[in-house]
Please model this.
Amino acid sequence: MCGIVGYIGPKRACDVLIEGLKRLEYRGYDSAGVCVYHAGRLHIAKSPGRISELEKKIAEDPAIQCGTVGIGHTRWATHGEPNEANAHPHCDLSGRIALVHNGIIENYAPLKRFLSDHGHVFRSETDTEVLAQLIGRFCQDGAETLEDAVRAALSEVGGTYGIAVMSASEPDKLVVARKGSPLIVGVGSGEYIVASDASAILEHTTNVVYLNDNEMAVVTRDSLRTMTLDNVPVSKEVEQIEWSLEQIAKGGHEHFMLKEIFEQPEVVKMCMRGRVDLRDMRIQLGGLESVTGALLRTKRLILTACGTAWHAALVGDYLFEDLARIPTEVQYASEFRYRNPIVEDDTTVIAISQSGETADTLAALREAKEKGALALGIVNVVGSTIARETDAGVYLHAGPEIGVASTKAFTCQLVVETMVALLLGRKRLLSQPVMEQYLRELAAIPDKMQRVLDKAEEIRKIAEDYVDRDNWLFLGRGYNYPIALEGALKLKEISYIHAEGLPAAEMKHGPIALIHEGMPAVFVTPQGPTYDKILGNIEEVRARRGKIIAVASEGDEGIRSCCDRVITVPDCPVALQPMLTVIPLQLLAYYAAVARGCNVDKPRNLAKSVTVE
Ligand code: G6P
Model:
């Protein structure tokens, strides 16, 4: 996700900024930029792509190389493509104020309209530029200091932010503020380094001041003042960072995959932010507004994807048929284009992809468009090829996923599918009370996810107890059948244990022959319409002395008598269960892989983004 660095002190600012931005690279980014003050003006260099591209630009700009105060940013695109215009820093109309921003300004559209009506011209598609111009406007309207203008502007914006702001009119000052997006001030000797992440500071100092939400700081060459956004002074302790750089990059976790598993409550919240509207009790998906009419006329939905995203599509099949009553089918992207698919009028194809670059998914999308389908995307990486080639779509906003085995992108794919299904369902058949119940339940999912994550230790023990078994089965029904497939895939991918996922009732048609004494069978069996049926399947495995690990509903005491191990998940509507039931399986695979000494984040033979057929 985006990263912020700022510097004020005796050194060349550009060196500290570039070094800090490189430290933030692990978070993922698609463009970068810096702003440095020198000789009465702000000097900006920005570039899409790697930081090395930005360095080339700085090398050609002597003014940027001179200054000793500046701000820098790595951007992970959310509003607008990853190009130079959209890269941060962004300026106000005068070019004398510059800003870098992490987070999302939710009400940027009405603010932008207001500013446009008052003569502001925008050079980017970003929400951030709106904030920069708003700060400039408050300066122009008589704010006495930069911090006054920042404070006034922030009182107008909704959403989340970590920001660092500088002004050519008050050059020995950085103003930073935080609401929902971290910011830290490193206190060096005779210098300050501000950053969104301690890894950009550690090189210089281990003394830091942490800002809390709704706080801001004014940093000058020899002082640091902290206050609330309402300008009430706050006194802060200088604290010591005790983590190593590597630990910090992984948020204190041993692997990126574990960090990403644990991030799920947070990213799912980000994915729903501004979209699950509990005030007006509706779903708002700006990315689909232009095609809502066409979507409502859709007679058939085809979901296409690869790997984990294909499992998300299988859950989508249930969601779209169940909640929106639209006939839906799921196609492996690699098969779709070679089968001469039937795409009739009023067919919509949705490509689902974390990276937005998977070659097979892209080819399937192009085939669908060629045949006249409305082509939509559910994609994580903004500005990726699939995102650009679709007619419309919904971004996941899951942040960069670095572990090769997809986890948080998967749960966000489920959330987006649910939101789309509810949006269409409400317009077709769902009553408002039913809709409201789903919206409330969706909003409760992040906390419930956390309750599952709190069981990590218990799950680690189960993984360690069975890690010596070479063959596993994963079984589920209904909405949890794709989760059984995903559980098996996760285990295969990172621990290299052979595993098969099945709809539970299919077991008796063949795979039951595999079951032998001690073989683990993981049943994904929370309460629901097929619960009783699956108990029968459990008995079939028990009779053959297999070991039963169940993912069951909290409070289901009965199931313990027929299972060797039980991991419980909180109750929720059946359609939302996959968002919770997948988490124990992600953790089971993770801990099994760690116990086997595997390279969890970079499993053998696998690539994060498969751009070849
Ligand atoms: C690769 C990855 C999988 C991923 C699949 C689809 O095979 O190893 O984890 O699910 O590609 O990737 P996408 O970026 O399209 O979701």
About this structure: Residues 306-309, 353-355, 358, 361, 404-406, 606, 609-610 surround 6-O-phosphono-alpha-D-glucopyranose (CB under 6 Å). The CA atoms of residues 452 and 583 lie 7 Å apart.
